[in-house]
UniProtKB/TrEMBL annotation:
InterPro entries: AmpC-like, Beta-lactam-related, Beta-lactam/transpept-like
Molecular-function GO term, any one: carboxypeptidase activity
Lineage top rank: taxon: Bacteria
Gene3D superfamilies xref list: DD-peptidase/beta-lactamase superfamily
Organism taxonomic ancestry: Bacteria, Pseudomonadati, Bacteroidota, Cytophagia, Cytophagales
Species the sequence originates in: Dyadobacter jejuensis
SUPFAM superfamilies documented for this protein: beta-lactamase/transpeptidase-like (SSF56601)
Limits of the Beta-lactamase-related domain: 54-373
Record keywords, A-Z: Carboxypeptidase, Hydrolase, Protease
Name recorded for this polypeptide: D-alanyl-D-alanine carboxypeptidase
Length: 393
């Protein structure tokens, strides 16, 4: 959720500035200590990867979960703090909200249903959607499932400044996918179906409704039963139940080093049912494992690997800071880095931020989830230079 490319980044900055007027810190649970180690203890690249961890802290990050999966093995670390007030250190077993990285799981579920012959991504989405939504949402009666996946549907964004303000003043608390979609009933589409691309979280809420209809169960339940558990992924959560391992979340509103607790806002924003635009929770270790399996053909049939690696150029203006984001396929972004292409997704809720990327040339996967944000942190974390830490001595 809320990774609206350039528009979303600007919107988030405006909203966070308003947060102080509407919310106060509410600490109602202690994040428990998680004593654990993941990955190999003596990874040959450990000192290089530790430099990335140190760089994140130097930018002001409160806490982060970082995993790098390479041909030499897996390196995983907790960085900083999971709970500032109670001085609980982050470990690889703590979990964080992954924001729009959830879209990878949503897209994979849709493609799995296609693999099983239960839907076709070239069909109109209206074939599988409840009539209430095809009638109420402009373009929902015309867009194909594939156009929802690659953001060419023209369907309007539900996550607006008005929506976020309602989260802050508690008018919206843990709305479901259906409830959030009803907020755009009667609104005009952004453009005719297929005419261009424009990132919209609404597309993936509609996809979650399709998963629910075709899979005959809640979309979260479908992902858990058919994607996570069969692949041995135990610490990625598609659920409205918050795991006890979840870190708290923080935002530095003025880039002055003062972090405000935003945990309750995060939970209200994406805590509802089937919020597959950005509601999932994970540690970086299991997130990296899943993404590596997806990118190397271990989850979907070979037929769909070509689709995942076939990117449409991004024509939406992303600004200079995201100029390295060059393509979008079926729930995946393509970056051009100093070390070749990387495939995955960025994600933002309010303060939690996630990313997972696979470098096919080097067969390296990096998953980074952080519990704190500011303009300074975001600029560093979303730069292509952050990936240099993976490869430079």
């Amino acid at each position: 959720m809320r990774y609206n490319m350039k528009k979303g980044l600007l919107k988030t900055g405006i909203v966070i500035s308003i947060v102080l007027c509407f919310s106060c810190t509410k600490i109602d649970y202690l994040v428990p200590t998680q004593a654990c180690e993941k990955g190999i203890p003596n990874h040959p690249n450990a000192s290089r990867y530790q430099k990335l961890a140190d760089a994140l802290l130097s930018q002001g990050v409160v806490g982060a979960s970082l995993t790098i999966l390479s041909p030499e093995g897996i390196w995983s670390a907790g960085i900083g703090m999971a709970d500032l007030q109670n001085k609980v250190s982050m470990t690889p077993c703590h979990t964080l909200r992954i924001g729009s990285v959830s879209k990878i799981f949503c897209a994979t579920a849709i493609l799995k249903l296609h693999d099983e012959g239960k839907l076709n991504i070239n069909d109109k989405a209206s074939k599988y959607l409840p009539q209430e939504f095809t009638k109420g949402i402009a373009n929902a009666d015309q867009a194909t499932i594939k156009q929802l996946l690659n953001h060419t549907s023209g369907i309007v964004e539900y996550s607006t400044i008005s929506n976020i303000l309602q989260i802050l003043n508690l008018s919206i608390v843990k709305h479901s996918a259906e409830e959030n979609l009803r907020s755009i009933f009667g609104k005009k589409a952004n453009f005719n179906v297929g005419k261009k691309d424009e990132y919209s979280n609404s597309n993936f809420l509609l996809l979650s409704l399709i998963i629910k209809a075709v899979g005959k169960m809640e979309a979260y339940e479908y992902i858990t039963k058919n994607l996570l558990l069969p692949n041995g992924i135990t610490d990625v959560y598609a659920s409205t139940i918050i795991p006890t391992s979840l870190s708290r979340a923080y935002y530095d509103n003025y880039d002055n080093g003062i972090m405000m607790d935003r945990t309750e806002i995060e939970n209200n924003a994406v805590g509802g049912s089937d919020m597959l635009d950005g509601g999932m929770i994970a540690n970086s270790y299991d997130l990296a494992l899943f993404h590596e399996k997806l990118m190397t053909g271990k989850i979907l049939s070979e037929n769909f690997m070509a689709e995942l690696y076939s990117f449409n150029p991004v024509t939406q203006d992303l600004g200079d800071e995201l100029s390295h984001l060059k393509g979008y396929s079926l729930g995946l972004m393509k970056l051009e880095t100093n070390y070749g292409i990387a495939i995955g997704h960025y994600g933002t809720v309010q303060s939690f931020n996630g990313m997972v990327y696979y470098f096919p040339q080097q067969q390296v996967t990096m998953a980074l989830i952080r519990n704190a944000d500011s303009a300074k942190i975001k600029k560093f974390a979303e730069s292509k230079e952050i990936f240099d830490f993976l490869f430079e001595e």
